[in-house]
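@channel sequence for tomorrow's demo:
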Amino acid sequence: MNKILKKTKFSENVVEYVIEAPDVTRHAKAGQFIILRVDNDGERIPFTIVNSDKETGGVTILVQTVGASTMKLAAKKQGEFISDFVGPLGTATNLHDAKKVILVGGGIGTAVIAPQAKAMFEKGNYCDSIVGARNEELIVYKELFNKCCDHAYFCTDDGSFGFKGYVTQKLAEVLENDTTIDTVFAVGPLPMMKAVVEVAKKYNRKSLVSLNSLMVDGTGMCGCCRVTVGGKVKYACVDGPEFNGELVDFDEAINRSKSFSEVERNHVCNLTGEVKNHG
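structure tokens (generated this afternoon):
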């Protein structure tokens, strides 16, 4: 059992949790993730480690409440317990060859680039960042990016905060004017990451992406999180979750991510007893 040390609601469906897991904090590094179960009958769901505190034993995760398991988690109160919290899993980020990095996060993907910015800041390796969301309310960790990055750019679809437009538009502008940036690290919805990779390629910059593919066991045994990278099958949970963006077959990954869209549309309200067709 793992205790919820802190619960902070950022917006209607985005909540930050700090979970007591001292064994995880001892080994966690930027880029790795955990898998949790809310109760003994719950499904295993993966979340990126946003922060780990060895002193308190707390691991921070950012969760978007969108389905049955995240609804169960949202129903938990600060001070209550969840059944399982396992990690760290996955391969830690390797940016040793990069001279200057620009981090690009879309939506909940901000949870993945936040620890990257913090880790580079603590090592004295400054970077730039671009964070995008539909509106200002959905942008998180503004203070962290402003503190840890040389330049922190914020984009909103509706123009309520920062640049009005997409992260790819701001990225093209920054790469056009700053030739010292050699690596683009992107996290977000698959179509967004695909577009970011195309912009990076246009400006002859290396790209890395963190793939949030479907996942079950987190150990490479189930094969659920398979992706095609460089023409070879890889598993996001053990080979990733980060890969060379130019080598990822995004079209295949996007199609696989839609595998259960029909079920999700028709059953999203089953928890409340209210069944609606959202098709």
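heads up for whoever presents: The chain has eight helices and 17 strands.
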